[in-house]
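pinging the channel bc i need a second pair of eyes. not urgent but kinda urgent?? the chain im working w is below, pasted from the shared doc
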Amino acid sequence: MALTDIVVRNAKPQDKAYKLTDSNGLFLFISPAGSKLWRFRYRFENKEQTLSIGPYPEITLSGARLKRDDARKLLANGINPTQQKRDKKEEKANIRTFETVAREWHKSSCRRWDPDHAKTVLSSLENHIFPTLGKCDIANLTTRDLLVPVKAVEAKEHLETANRLQQRIGAIMRYAVQNAYINYNPSHDMKGAISSQKTEHRPALSFDNITEFLEKINSYRGKPLTILAIKLTLLTFIRSSELRFARWSEIDFERALWCIPKRREEIAGVKYSKRGSKMRTQHLVPLCKQAVDILQKVNEISGEFDLLFIGNQTPYKPMSENTINKALRIMGFDTKTDVCGHGFRTMACSAMIESGLWSKDAVERQMSHQERNNVRAAYIYLAEHLDERKQMMQWWADYLDANREGYITPYEFAHPDDVGSK
């Protein structure tokens, strides 16, 4: 007699394994441990064989009958269902999933990456890409498939993350082509599918307001270390993390040189304190006379500690990342529209270029910008242009001093004879 759901559900384990027969070769195998497995007995090429269908209750009685019927159709067409199942399993085991290739790409790429960046890239794939594409055969993925997880991130208006994910998917698929895992890279057609994020330009003060700006800094009555930090940032125009996590061991007073390493020793409990130069190569900052004077004053405050700009609560942690911008706001500047600490970099770069005195390579090297052309990048890195940069940094400091008396353009300060002859 055919089985019923009640009979299957109520079947209990016994001292020995036994089976409950349904119909057309289907039966339920019950082990002494209590597991229930559907099996299908059939003959193929005059030999009796058994196909394992799956466990109950994951596969119901009706579901097992459907799988039995599918197997019987294969037999009618001269196909052994057990062999077909084995072939599919082997085929599945041999496919290259997107996650497998992505991890292979990551392992290959991270040799040239900073460890923190490598960790960030892998986390982004694990969080956003692998849940959707991870188990897919990379050879079967289409452009539409690749866009699904990226579009999901875009829908949350995380445009920067979405664009980075698109770039990483493109790199993974390119790696797959290069290693003959696929013949065509479907990520090529992803271009333009994700909204581009507008570049957010940091506010920088126009030159005709620089005299007022310098006056407000001089009259500011905040904490001495905060004032010194503002003045030093203005003179050196380094990035916030490069300043906050600076150590006294990086300052060479004798050579008037600040050597910002590519990585720093981590400070326990302080996020990103391992950051050194943003470009992950040593960055040299020639120190003008004014900067040396400021550093000597800073040394009187924090010289006995490792950090230059120590925090208010403890000297073993750096000042807050909001310190400089908060001070600027107290002075009356809107750090979103007028000027912010990062905007000092724009002011300095603009002035040095408008002066007409300095080579573009020297300016770019001092700004610690990444050269996109690999050949030029190697040239600039090796050249350093250090002598020119020393003069340029002193010129910038002197230009600021000149503006304390009244506004003067960078070109006028650089070429007084030319201006006077007009």
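so The beta strands are 18-21, 26-30, 36-44, 47-56, 251-252, 257-260, 283-286. and The first strand starts at residue 18 and ends at 21. — does that match what u expected or am i reading it wrong
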